[in-house]
């Protein structure tokens, strides 16, 4: 009943089936979007769609208990349920930040915890759609030897896990020595072929793209718009968790820029089908060491220059030539969007400040929180507004970042503002007592001042 297809983002005529092995428009070479048959989707009212989606949340009905597959009609109507590869991803919590938001001056500040997913990042949301499509294609008789990706860590973990569940070979190309141990061990544990390359992400991306073109492996990076179909459910979940109300702002860390495009598509689809009456404003937050979108934004998007990204603590967004630049630019223009950047010290301190209020932020979330602080400081975000920060990964993947921050060993962070270190003491009650009482005498005032 429901249909979707690939279509050129620049408007070239023609539709391509979602089971086509194609990543760019065969006419102009631009990227492709997944386009849904809106007329058919409109046969169900907005209220009926809300009721249907609400009825599926966290159920055990296959595959609709997944936060992605609970919106199957809007995501991947071409996949038979028996070919869905799912870990019941999505449905992640929207966390109210409490005193942290109050202290920043935005009491209604929420963090969408996309890292509370199977492999610890939002990449699961797109990978379930892509791997399920490949499984469907293979069931229909297409020959696909493997699925491959370039990655700075999280994409490789998601691809390896979902491919292992599907029984499909995964090939992962990583920049050697530039991802965390926790991220590296995930694809190794799930049996992927892991290639560590003496390059950065952009170099790995060039290699995997050539591999897909010449050797027939299926490409799993976000230039494949099937990935974005799963990721757009973050936007739908946010609105659903607010009882189908739209926040004023959504702040998204940006690297390859697929996520801003995906969330924009989710809000657009809800708007087209009448589930929401308006769109939120969007801010894309980039690390200052890898900020080509920010530089383009400063020129009013008149120019775009790929750059050689410098090393950054936010390693997953250390990308100088983002494949989804054009998609992201258009989304920002539709959503009255802004782009902000964060230095290494700003992102590290912002993450640590949030941690003091009970969070455990990855460095990429730190980039978004630093951007939030800047938007508040210049009055673009006000006290009365509801704001959602998208946290892209679980902080437990980045324990080295946390440890080195508190040990004052992070490059680019000369004076960590919220450093906290253990106090060595002898095995003596009096010494312990004195340390505790001394802390109780001084710490409350210091915490109030710092947070």
Strand content: 5-15%
DSSP strand count: 12
Order of helices and strands: EEHHHEHEHEHEHEHEHHEHEHHEHHEHH
User: Multimeric state of these chains?
Assistant: single chain
The number of distinct helices, counting runs of at least 4 residues, comes to 17
Radius of gyration: 22 Å
In what order do the strands lie side by side in the largest sheet? 3-4-12-9-10-11
Give the overall average pLDDT.
95
Helix content: 40-55%
Alpha-carbon distance between the two ends: 53 Å
Task: Please mark out the parts with pLDDT under 50 across 5 or more consecutive residues, or reply none.
Answer: 446-451
Helix/strand-derived class?
alpha/beta
Q: Please summarize the sheet with the most strands.
A: 6 strands, mixed
SSE layout and pairings?
Layout: E1 4-8, E2 32-36, H1 38-41, H2 46-56, H3 72-75, E3 94-96, H4 99-104, E4 109-113, H5 123-139, E5 147-150, H6 154-166, E6 170-175, H7 181-189, E7 193-197, H8 201-215, E8 218-219, H9 226-231, H10 233-241, E9 249-253, H11 258-272, E10 281-287, H12 292-298, H13 325-334, E11 338-342, H14 344-355, H15 363-377, E12 387-391, H16 399-406, H17 429-450
Parallel strand pairs: 4-12, 5-6, 5-8, 6-7, 9-10, 9-12, 10-11
Antiparallel strand pairs: 1-2, 3-4
How is this structure best described in words?
With 451 residues, this protein is of the alpha/beta class. Helices cover 41% and strands 13% of the residues. The protein has helices at residues 38-41, 46-56, 72-75, 99-104, 123-139, 154-166, 181-189, 201-215, 226-231, 233-241, 258-272, 292-298, 325-334, 344-355, 363-377, 399-406, 429-450; strands at residues 4-8, 32-36, 94-96, 109-113, 147-150, 170-175, 193-197, 218-219, 249-253, 281-287, 338-342, 387-391. Strands 3-4-12-9-10-11 form a 6-stranded mixed sheet, sandwiched between helices. Helix 6 links the parallel strand 5 (147-150) and strand 6 (170-175). The protein starts with a strand and ends with a helix. 50% of the residues are buried. The model is unreliable at 446-451 (pLDDT under 50).
């Amino acid at each position: 009943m429901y249909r979707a297809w690939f279509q050129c983002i620049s408007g070239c005529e023609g539709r391509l089936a979602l089971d086509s092995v194609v990543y760019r428009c065969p006419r102009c070479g631009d990227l492709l979007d997944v386009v849904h048959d809106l007329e058919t989707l409109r046969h169900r009212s907005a209220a009926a769609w809300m009721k249907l989606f609400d009825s599926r949340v966290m159920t055990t009905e296959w595959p609709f208990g997944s936060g992605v597959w609970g919106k199957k009609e809007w995501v991947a109507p071409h996949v038979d349920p028996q070919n869905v590869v799912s870990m019941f991803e999505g449905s992640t919590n929207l966390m109210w930040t409490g005193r942290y938001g109050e202290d920043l001056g935005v009491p209604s500040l929420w963090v969408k915890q996309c890292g509370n997913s199977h492999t610890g990042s939002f990449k699961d949301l797109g990978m379930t759609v892509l791997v399920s499509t490949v499984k469907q294609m293979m069931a229909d008789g297409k020959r696909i030897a493997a699925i491959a990706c370039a990655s700075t860590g999280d994409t490789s973990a998601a691809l390896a896990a979902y491919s292992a569940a599907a029984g499909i070979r995964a090939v992962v190309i990583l920049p050697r020595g530039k991802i965390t141990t926790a991220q590296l061990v995930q694809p190794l544990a799930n049996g992927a072929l892991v290639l560590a390359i003496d390059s950065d992400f952009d170099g790995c991306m060039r290699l995997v793209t050539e591999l897909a073109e010449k050797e027939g492996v299926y490409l799993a990076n976000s230039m494949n718009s099937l990935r974005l179909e799963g990721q757009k459910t973050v936007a739908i979940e946010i609105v659903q968790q607010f009882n189908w109300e739209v926040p004023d702002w959504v702040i998204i860390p940006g690297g390859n820029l697929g996520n801003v495009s995906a969330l924009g598509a989710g809000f657009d689809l809800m708007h087209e089908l009448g589930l929401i009456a308006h769109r939120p404003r969007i801010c894309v937050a980039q690390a200052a060491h890898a900020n080509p979108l920010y530089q383009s934004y400063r020129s009013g998007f008149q120019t775009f220059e790929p750059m050689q990204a410098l090393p950054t603590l936010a390693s997953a967004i250390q990308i100088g030539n983002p494949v989804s630049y054009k998609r992201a630019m258009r989304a920002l223009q539709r959503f009255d969007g802004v782009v902000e950047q964060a230095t290494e010290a700003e992102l590290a301190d912002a993450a640590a400040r949030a941690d003091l209020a009970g969070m455990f932020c990855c460095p990429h979330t730190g980039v978004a929180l630093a951007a939030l602080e800047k938007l508040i400081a210049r009055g673009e975000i006000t006290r009365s507004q509801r704001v959602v920060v998208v946290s892209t990964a679980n902080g437990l993947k980045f324990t080295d970042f946390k440890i080195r921050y508190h040990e004052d060993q992070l490059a680019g962070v000369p004076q960590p503002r919220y450093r906290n270190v253990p106090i060595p003491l002898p095995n003596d009650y009096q010494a312990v007592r004195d340390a505790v009482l001394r802390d109780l005498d001084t710490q409350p005032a210091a915490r109030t001042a710092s947070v």
